[in-house]
Each structure stands twice: as C-alpha cells, then as structure tokens.
Specification:
Keywords: Membrane, Oxidoreductase, Transmembrane, Transmembrane helix. It is a single chain. The chain has 179 residues and is of the alpha/beta class. It has one domain (2-173): Rossmann fold, CATH 3.40.50.720. The chain has five helices and five strands. The protein has a five-stranded mixed β-sheet with strand order 1-2-3-4-5, with helices on both faces. A hairpin with a 2-residue loop joins strand 4 and strand 5. It is globular and about 45 Å long. The two termini are 18 Å apart.
Length: 179
C-alpha cells in the first residue's frame, strides 16, 4: 500500500463537514484510517516531503485554533504526521515493512513548473519500497530519498509523539488501529 494522496502547501484554510482543517483530514487522518482499516499488509509506504523537516507536530493545535492559518506550515506538519505514522506502524506491526519517503520537489500540479527535482526519480523509491526484492528495501521504520536512507525530523521518531498522534486519530475517527 502506497499512501500518496495529499493536498498541497498553497491551500487556504477550509474545514471538512466534521470541522477539521482539510489538509489534516486528507493528508493525515485519511492515511491513518486507511492504514487501520486495511489490516496488516506486507508493506506500507508513506509519502512525506522534505518540508517536514522544518515542521513541528503541533498535536496540541491540529485544528489551527491557536495559530494563524499557514497552508505551507499545515502541509509540512501533515507530512511530518505521515512519517510519524509510518514509524509508529513499524514499531507496532513488526511483520510489516513500514517506511516513509520524500519524492523530491518535482514539476507536478502540486510542485509547480519551477520544481527542480528529477521527475523520473520521484516514483522510483515508492515502487522500490513497495515491491522490490532488494534487501535494502525490505526494512522498516526508515526514511528515504531517491533510494537512499535519509535522516528525518527527530519528532517523527519520537514514540511518545507517535502514540499521541495515533490516539488523536483514533478519537477523531472512531477507528482503532489493530494490535
């Protein structure tokens, strides 16, 4: 399973029918719900972004009530959450290869025409982690960029923050992650 759906960083503040900021609902909560509902696959791949490195998890204000809305910050935060989910699943489901990656800043509709990364490289790490027999792809709890391990934001590896995020997602969705 590759978690790739997302809305971008130029988003204005909009709320879902459940009064959730739509960036969080789409980029974080839906990823959690899909993971919880599909059972335990052999591999899970979560797309993050290099923007996650400058983000703070902000689990005390995921609704953006204490902060002024910033679409770029909301996107970066959601991509940090995705990495946190990947690493939480890696801890909780030892038989599953669960990893996160950044595809790079590529010239897509989301990235825009000025994006400077190699479009041909963007998909390779996803496919490699999802299906390769390469021993280097059969790992769990890692972060990658262009087929190479990369150090993620330290908050993404914080088990206490991961647990808080999962508890928050469980509470908001009423969908519980199997043990």
């Amino acid at each position: 399973m590759i978690h790739n759906a997302a809305v971008g960083y130029r988003e204005s503040r909009r709320l879902t029918a459940d009064s959730l900021p739509h960036v969080f609902a789409i980029n974080t909560l839906s990823v959690y719900i899909l993971t919880a509902l599909i059972g335990k696959p052999k591999r899970l791949v979560y797309l993050s972004s290099g923007m996650h490195r400058q983000a703070d998890a902000n689990l005390d204000d995921i609704f953006w009530r204490k902060r002024r809305w910033n679409g770029s910050a909301a996107y970066a935060e959601s991509k940090l959450h995705d990495a946190m989910l990947a690493f939480a699943i890696a801890r909780r489901w030892p038989g599953v290869f669960s990893n996160s990656l950044e595809p790079g800043w590529v010239p897509t509709r989301m990235g825009g025409p000025d994006a400077s990364d190699d479009m041909d490289q963007a998909h390779r790490t996803q496919a490699w982690l999802a299906a390769s027999d390469d021993a280097q792809a059969q790992v769990t709890g890692q972060y990658f960029y262009h087929l190479r391990p990369l150090t993620p934001n330290p908050q993404s590896k914080d088990a206490a923050l991961q647990n808080r995020l999962i508890a928050l997602c469980e509470e908001l969705s009423d969908v519980h992650l199997m043990v």
